Amino acid sequence: MSIRQQIPLLEALADIDERIRVVEEDLALRRGGLQALRGEVAGLETKIAASSESISSMEKTRNELQLEVRQMGSQIEKSREKLGRSRNERESLAATRELEELRKLVRDREDEVQKLENLLERARTSITESKTRHDALTKELEGDAEGVTQALSERETQRVQLLAERETAVKALPPILYRRYETIRSRRPRAIASTHNGTCNGCFISVPPMMFQKMMRQEEFEQCPNCKRILYYVPKDSGGSNA
Ligand SMILES: [Zn+2]
Q1: What domains lie within the chain, and their CATH numbers?
Q2: Does the pTM of the predicted model rise above 0.70?
Protein backbone atom coordinates (compact mmCIF):
# COMPACT_ATOMS: atom_id res chain seq x y z
CA MET A 1 0.00 0.00 0.00
CA SER A 2 1.49 3.36 -1.01
CA ILE A 3 1.66 6.15 1.49
CA ARG A 4 -0.79 8.11 -0.63
CA GLN A 5 -3.34 5.42 0.17
CA GLN A 6 -2.27 5.23 3.80
CA ILE A 7 -2.60 8.96 4.51
CA PRO A 8 -6.44 9.11 4.40
CA LEU A 9 -6.64 5.96 6.53
CA LEU A 10 -4.27 7.45 9.07
CA GLU A 11 -6.20 10.71 9.11
CA ALA A 12 -9.48 8.86 9.57
CA LEU A 13 -8.04 7.09 12.61
CA ALA A 14 -6.68 10.34 14.04
CA ASP A 15 -10.13 11.94 13.62
CA ILE A 16 -11.82 9.07 15.42
CA ASP A 17 -9.27 9.28 18.23
CA GLU A 18 -9.94 13.00 18.51
CA ARG A 19 -13.68 12.36 18.85
CA ILE A 20 -13.08 9.62 21.42
CA ARG A 21 -10.91 12.01 23.42
CA VAL A 22 -13.64 14.67 23.43
CA VAL A 23 -16.32 12.17 24.51
CA GLU A 24 -14.10 10.72 27.24
CA GLU A 25 -13.22 14.16 28.59
CA ASP A 26 -16.89 15.05 28.67
CA LEU A 27 -17.70 11.79 30.50
CA ALA A 28 -14.99 12.44 33.08
CA LEU A 29 -16.18 16.00 33.60
CA ARG A 30 -19.82 14.99 34.12
CA ARG A 31 -18.88 12.11 36.40
CA GLY A 32 -16.57 14.43 38.32
CA GLY A 33 -19.32 17.03 38.73
CA LEU A 34 -21.71 14.44 40.12
CA GLN A 35 -19.06 13.07 42.42
CA ALA A 36 -18.15 16.52 43.73
CA LEU A 37 -21.80 17.24 44.49
CA ARG A 38 -22.20 13.92 46.33
CA GLY A 39 -18.98 14.57 48.21
CA GLU A 40 -20.22 17.96 49.37
CA VAL A 41 -23.54 16.48 50.56
CA ALA A 42 -21.69 13.79 52.54
CA GLY A 43 -19.35 16.39 54.02
CA LEU A 44 -22.31 18.50 55.19
CA GLU A 45 -23.95 15.47 56.80
CA THR A 46 -20.77 14.77 58.77
CA LYS A 47 -20.55 18.41 59.79
CA ILE A 48 -24.18 18.52 60.92
CA ALA A 49 -23.77 15.34 62.97
CA ALA A 50 -20.61 16.69 64.64
CA SER A 51 -22.28 20.04 65.43
CA SER A 52 -25.35 18.30 66.92
CA GLU A 53 -23.11 16.25 69.13
CA SER A 54 -21.17 19.26 70.35
CA ILE A 55 -24.42 21.17 70.96
CA SER A 56 -25.80 18.45 73.22
CA SER A 57 -22.57 18.19 75.16
CA MET A 58 -22.46 21.99 75.62
CA GLU A 59 -26.10 21.98 76.74
CA LYS A 60 -25.33 19.28 79.28
CA THR A 61 -22.42 21.29 80.73
CA ARG A 62 -24.53 24.45 80.80
CA ASN A 63 -27.36 22.68 82.66
CA GLU A 64 -24.91 21.34 85.23
CA LEU A 65 -23.49 24.83 85.76
CA GLN A 66 -26.97 26.31 86.16
CA LEU A 67 -27.81 23.63 88.71
CA GLU A 68 -24.65 24.52 90.65
CA VAL A 69 -25.61 28.21 90.55
CA ARG A 70 -29.01 27.37 92.09
CA GLN A 71 -27.42 25.23 94.79
CA MET A 72 -24.98 28.04 95.60
CA GLY A 73 -27.94 30.40 95.84
CA SER A 74 -29.26 28.48 98.83
CA GLN A 75 -25.77 28.37 100.34
CA ILE A 76 -25.60 32.15 99.98
CA GLU A 77 -28.91 32.42 101.84
CA LYS A 78 -27.45 30.38 104.69
CA SER A 79 -24.30 32.52 104.78
CA ARG A 80 -26.42 35.66 104.96
CA GLU A 81 -28.36 34.26 107.86
CA LYS A 82 -25.07 33.36 109.52
CA LEU A 83 -23.88 36.94 109.02
CA GLY A 84 -27.08 38.26 110.56
CA ARG A 85 -26.60 35.99 113.55
CA SER A 86 -22.93 36.78 114.08
CA ARG A 87 -22.19 37.87 117.61
CA ASN A 88 -18.72 39.31 117.22
CA GLU A 89 -16.34 40.73 114.63
CA ARG A 90 -14.55 37.39 114.10
CA GLU A 91 -17.80 35.58 113.22
CA SER A 92 -19.00 38.43 111.06
CA LEU A 93 -15.67 38.53 109.18
CA ALA A 94 -15.79 34.76 108.58
CA ALA A 95 -19.38 34.93 107.31
CA THR A 96 -18.58 37.86 105.01
CA ARG A 97 -15.59 36.01 103.56
CA GLU A 98 -17.71 32.91 102.97
CA LEU A 99 -20.36 35.03 101.28
CA GLU A 100 -17.79 36.69 99.00
CA GLU A 101 -16.29 33.36 98.00
CA LEU A 102 -19.69 31.96 97.17
CA ARG A 103 -20.60 35.04 95.15
CA LYS A 104 -17.35 34.71 93.20
CA LEU A 105 -18.05 31.04 92.48
CA VAL A 106 -21.51 31.98 91.23
CA ARG A 107 -20.08 34.74 89.01
CA ASP A 108 -17.52 32.32 87.50
CA ARG A 109 -20.27 29.87 86.66
CA GLU A 110 -22.49 32.56 85.22
CA ASP A 111 -19.60 33.70 83.02
CA GLU A 112 -19.09 30.16 81.81
CA VAL A 113 -22.81 29.76 81.14
CA GLN A 114 -22.74 32.97 79.08
CA LYS A 115 -19.73 31.76 77.09
CA LEU A 116 -21.50 28.47 76.42
CA GLU A 117 -24.67 30.28 75.35
CA ASN A 118 -22.64 32.25 72.80
CA LEU A 119 -21.00 29.10 71.48
CA LEU A 120 -24.36 27.34 71.35
CA GLU A 121 -25.83 30.22 69.39
CA ARG A 122 -22.99 30.03 66.88
CA ALA A 123 -23.25 26.25 66.58
CA ARG A 124 -27.02 26.44 66.00
CA THR A 125 -26.58 29.08 63.28
CA SER A 126 -23.93 26.95 61.60
CA ILE A 127 -26.20 23.89 61.72
CA THR A 128 -29.06 25.85 60.18
CA GLU A 129 -26.78 27.07 57.37
CA SER A 130 -25.41 23.58 56.77
CA LYS A 131 -28.93 22.14 56.66
CA THR A 132 -30.12 24.77 54.20
CA ARG A 133 -27.14 24.09 51.91
CA HIS A 134 -27.58 20.34 52.35
CA ASP A 135 -31.26 20.48 51.35
CA ALA A 136 -30.51 22.65 48.33
CA LEU A 137 -27.74 20.32 47.15
CA THR A 138 -29.86 17.22 47.71
CA LYS A 139 -32.62 18.73 45.63
CA GLU A 140 -30.11 19.71 42.93
CA LEU A 141 -28.66 16.22 42.96
CA GLU A 142 -32.09 14.61 42.63
CA GLY A 143 -33.01 16.97 39.79
CA ASP A 144 -29.68 16.49 38.07
CA ALA A 145 -29.48 12.78 38.56
CA GLU A 146 -31.90 12.01 35.75
CA GLY A 147 -30.43 14.51 33.30
CA VAL A 148 -26.86 13.56 34.11
CA THR A 149 -27.58 9.84 33.96
CA GLN A 150 -29.15 10.27 30.54
CA ALA A 151 -26.27 12.39 29.26
CA LEU A 152 -23.78 9.88 30.62
CA SER A 153 -25.48 6.96 28.92
CA GLU A 154 -25.64 8.87 25.61
CA ARG A 155 -21.92 9.64 25.78
CA GLU A 156 -21.22 6.06 26.77
CA THR A 157 -23.09 4.80 23.69
CA GLN A 158 -21.20 7.27 21.50
CA ARG A 159 -17.95 6.06 22.97
CA VAL A 160 -18.76 2.41 22.26
CA GLN A 161 -19.71 3.28 18.67
CA LEU A 162 -16.50 5.24 18.18
CA LEU A 163 -14.43 2.39 19.59
CA ALA A 164 -16.02 0.05 17.04
CA GLU A 165 -15.25 2.53 14.25
CA ARG A 166 -11.73 2.75 15.56
CA GLU A 167 -11.26 -0.99 15.42
CA THR A 168 -12.20 -0.98 11.73
CA ALA A 169 -9.91 1.98 11.05
CA VAL A 170 -7.01 0.25 12.80
CA LYS A 171 -7.45 -2.92 10.76
CA ALA A 172 -7.14 -0.93 7.55
CA LEU A 173 -3.65 0.29 8.49
CA PRO A 174 -0.35 -1.58 8.15
CA PRO A 175 0.47 -2.84 11.68
CA ILE A 176 3.93 -1.21 11.74
CA LEU A 177 2.44 2.18 10.95
CA TYR A 178 -0.25 1.69 13.56
CA ARG A 179 2.30 0.82 16.26
CA ARG A 180 4.29 3.90 15.37
CA TYR A 181 1.13 5.98 15.55
CA GLU A 182 0.24 4.55 18.98
CA THR A 183 3.71 5.21 20.39
CA ILE A 184 3.49 8.86 19.42
CA ARG A 185 -0.12 9.14 20.55
CA SER A 186 0.88 8.20 24.08
CA ARG A 187 2.66 11.56 24.18
CA ARG A 188 0.63 13.65 21.72
CA PRO A 189 -3.17 13.53 21.54
CA ARG A 190 -2.91 14.00 17.76
CA ALA A 191 -0.04 11.89 16.53
CA ILE A 192 0.03 13.00 12.90
CA ALA A 193 0.70 16.21 11.01
CA SER A 194 0.83 17.18 7.37
CA THR A 195 2.78 19.79 5.51
CA HIS A 196 2.39 21.35 2.08
CA ASN A 197 5.22 23.91 2.26
CA GLY A 198 7.78 22.47 4.65
CA THR A 199 6.12 23.78 7.81
CA CYS A 200 4.75 21.08 10.12
CA ASN A 201 1.12 21.95 10.77
CA GLY A 202 1.31 20.20 14.13
CA CYS A 203 3.93 22.48 15.68
CA PHE A 204 4.37 25.14 12.96
CA ILE A 205 8.13 24.69 12.77
CA SER A 206 9.87 24.26 9.38
CA VAL A 207 11.48 20.94 8.63
CA PRO A 208 14.97 20.92 7.06
CA PRO A 209 14.76 21.60 3.27
CA MET A 210 16.48 18.30 2.37
CA MET A 211 13.90 16.43 4.38
CA PHE A 212 11.05 18.30 2.76
CA GLN A 213 12.45 17.54 -0.72
CA LYS A 214 12.41 13.86 0.15
CA MET A 215 8.91 14.07 1.62
CA MET A 216 7.52 15.54 -1.58
CA ARG A 217 8.22 12.24 -3.32
CA GLN A 218 5.64 10.69 -0.93
CA GLU A 219 7.56 7.47 -0.60
CA GLU A 220 7.57 7.14 3.17
CA PHE A 221 6.33 8.80 6.30
CA GLU A 222 8.73 11.09 8.12
CA GLN A 223 8.81 12.27 11.69
CA CYS A 224 8.73 15.97 12.52
CA PRO A 225 12.18 16.71 14.07
CA ASN A 226 10.51 19.09 16.49
CA CYS A 227 7.19 17.62 17.67
CA LYS A 228 7.94 14.00 16.63
CA ARG A 229 4.55 13.57 14.99
CA ILE A 230 4.25 11.34 11.93
CA LEU A 231 4.72 13.89 9.17
CA TYR A 232 3.71 13.61 5.52
CA TYR A 233 3.44 15.81 2.49
CA VAL A 234 0.10 16.76 1.03
CA PRO A 235 0.00 19.11 -1.98
CA LYS A 236 -1.75 22.37 -1.16
CA ASP A 237 -4.76 21.94 -3.43
CA SER A 238 -5.37 18.29 -2.71
CA GLY A 239 -7.66 19.11 0.19
CA GLY A 240 -6.72 15.73 1.52
CA SER A 241 -5.36 16.87 4.82
CA ASN A 242 -7.15 18.19 7.81
CA ALA A 243 -4.31 17.33 10.12
ZN1 LIG B 1 6.00 19.24 14.16
Answers
A1: 18-171 (1.10.287.1490), 175-238 (no CATH)
A2: no
